[in-house]
TrEMBL record:
The organism's place on the tree of life at top rank: Bacteria
Species name: Nocardioides jiangxiensis
Name of protein: VanW family protein
InterPro entries to which the protein is assigned, alphabetical: Glycopeptide_resist_protein, Vancomycin_resist_VanW, YoaR-like_PG-bd
The YoaR-like putative peptidoglycan binding domain, residue ranges: 79-186
């Protein structure tokens, strides 16, 4: 009878089996170490059994030759670097993904001995850089779709047919470029049809539903008793059909529509200020006119709805307001401009430039009306003396010497206008005498001007309006020019002037100039003088104003340069 094994023997046997199995596992693990599974390949590169470092080296060497990718679109080939395409191969991540590295996990040991198949390489993609390349390829080799549209030309609606474009399928293109980079090959990208957002069907609908009805007849706007009739050609520039949610939607340009309406309103739309003009030598009040005002929203808001209607329904009532003129007829009558209250005349020697500049300046001043309290500025009224403003070069005084500048001779106008204002009793705000005295001007009572700072200004400080009238008789080689400026109003002051004797007299010297731009100059005596303006009302002197003027002396200049 045999002996049965006791419990201790059984345990010992199990331990022995376990130790044997563990030893075998340790041997298998030690042999596999951290090598990649047998049969592993990446992009066709064999890596089975290689240590991770060796596998990385092999992959990096292989992919170094993949740095450039030739891309062909519509028969044209362009080459890009991997960096331009935003592609970067990560060898370390790829080796790790393929199973490289030590692990006690039995599954890892099984993979090594059982073998592995092709492993996809780990490629990092900069989507922005890749999209930029694809955008450029599509722009250079594709064709944008032509959107269907409706244009309004000459009061008619014109259809613009849609056109199918050619482009790149973004997902397929990106996948093809990545695959070409991994394989180290070129990529051929097909162009596919790109449909427009607005097709011919949407264009046909927009023509039938809006464009043709809109251009079918005029639209009448009713401003109380004033009517404005807009023809299609007149309001068409304010219309547009714009894409929105796959359809063409009508829009109206408020600014252009208002311009079309205002152009038809004409004088009725703009208020006209009352004024005073000389009619056959007599001052007459020209009545002011109210204008028609309206809120542009009252037109642009319902305008599109009216365009789809027909017949009598193509009328739009607009709430009108009366736009009053700034100067009413009643105010102009209160100015009391009835009679000539002053006039002054000066004479000038013949020169062609004076016969241009003086009449031009006078024409800009003629008809100026000053309400009580208003100030006249010659520079503001005449404007800068430029060729565009009608002025030519002539002689002026600059720094005590004679030179040339645009607008020479306008000081003749300033002096004449100053004296007319002086004897009308108007307030002297700003005037500057010439630095040298010319005997064709009243001594101590003259003015010069220069843009923009030297100005002639006077204020109408009387209770009546002032109308300025100018007149010129051009000079000839045998006769002087004549400049006359008159002030029309209601007589408020009786003005007279007295003048002191000359004092602080400085006699001129003489000098010779060799300068190539020398201008010969006659001598001028320098002196001081005072002018007194006497204000009288009803025969009694109310006040006296003193005006002091200093004139420089000027040497006789003889030019020796040819």
């Amino acid at each position: 009878m045999g002996r049965r094994l006791g419990g201790g023997a059984v345990v010992l046997s199990v331990l022995l089996v376990g130790l044997l199995a563990g030893g075998l596992y340790a041997v298998a693990w030690a042999f596999a170490a951290d090598r990649l599974p047998r049969g592993t390949t990446v992009a066709g590169v064999p890596l089975g059994g290689l240590a991770p470092a060796a596998a990385r080296d092999r992959l990096e060497k292989e992919f170094a030759g993949h740095d450039r990718v030739a891309v062909t679109v519509a028969g044209a080939t362009e080459t890009f670097t991997a960096a331009q395409l935003g592609l970067h191969f990560d060898a370390a991540a790829t080796v790790e993904e393929a199973g490289g590295g030590r692990s006690l996990d039995p599954r890892r040991l099984w993979d090594y001995y059982a073998g592995a198949d092709e492993v996809a390489p780990v490629v990092e993609v900069d989507e922005s850089a890749l999209d930029q390349v694809v955008d450029g390829l599509e722009e250079r080799h594709g064709r944008a779709p032509g959107e269907g549209a409706v244009r309004f030309v000459g009061g008619r609606a014109k259809a613009v047919p849609a056109r199918v474009g050619l482009g790149l399928d973004r997902d397929a293109t990106r996948a093809a470029i990545e695959a070409a980079y991994v394989a180290g090959e070129g990529a051929t990208l097909p162009l596919t049809d790109v449909q427009p957002t607005i097709g011919d069907e949407e264009v046909t609908a927009a023509l039938a539903e809006f464009a043709r009805p809109a251009m079918s007849a005029p639209v009448t706007l009713v401003f109380d008793t004033q009517e404005v009739r807009l023809r299609p050609a007149q309001f068409a520039p304010a219309l547009a059909l714009v894409p929105k949610d796959g359809a063409l939607v009508p829009q109206v340009d408020a600014t252009r529509l208002k311009a079309a309406v205002d152009a038809r309103l004409g004088d009725a739309g703009t208020p006209v200020d009352a004024t005073v003009r000389l009619v056959h030598g007599v001052p007459r009040v020209v009545p002011g006119k109210p204008g028609v005002g309206y809120d542009p929203k009252d037109v642009t808001g319902p305008f599109l709805d009216v365009l789809t209607k027909s017949g009598a329904e193509r009328r739009l009532a607009v709430q009108a307001t009366v736009a009053k003129p700034q100067v009413t007829t009643a105010e102009a009558r209160k100015w009391g401009i009835r009679e000539k209250v002053s006039t002054f005349t000066t004479y000038y020697p013949h020169t062609d430039y004076r016969n241009i500049n003086i009449p031009r300046a006078l024409s800009l001043i003629d008809g100026t009306v000053l309400a009580p309290g208003e100030t006249f500025s010659l520079n503001d009224t005449v404007g800068e003396r430029t060729k565009a403003n009608g002025f030519v070069e002539g002689y002026v005084i600059d720094g005590g010497e004679i030179t040339t500048a645009l607008g020479g001779g306008v000081s003749q106008v300033a002096t004449t206008t100053f004296n007319a204002a002086f004897f009308a009793g108007l307030k002297d705000v700003q005037h500057k005498p010439h630095s040298l005295y010319f005997d064709r001007y009243p001594v101590g009572r003259e003015a010069t001007v220069a843009w923009p700072y030297v100005d002639l200004k006077f204020q109408n400080d009387t209770p009546y309006g002032i109308l300025i009238e100018t007149h010129v008789q051009k000079s000839t080689p045998s006769s002087s020019g004549v400049v006359t400026v008159s002030m029309w109003s209601t007589k408020f002051w009786d003005i007279s002037a007295t003048t002191s004797g000359r004092y602080n007299v400085v006699e001129p010297g003489s000098r010779v100039s060799k300068a190539p731009d020398c201008e010969p100059q006659e001598p001028n005596t320098g002196f001081d003088i005072d002018v007194y303006r006497h204000f009288r009302r009803n025969g009694e002197e109310v006040r006296v104003e003193k005006m002091h003027t200093h004139y420089d002396s000027a040497d006789k200049v003889t030019c020796t340069s040819p």
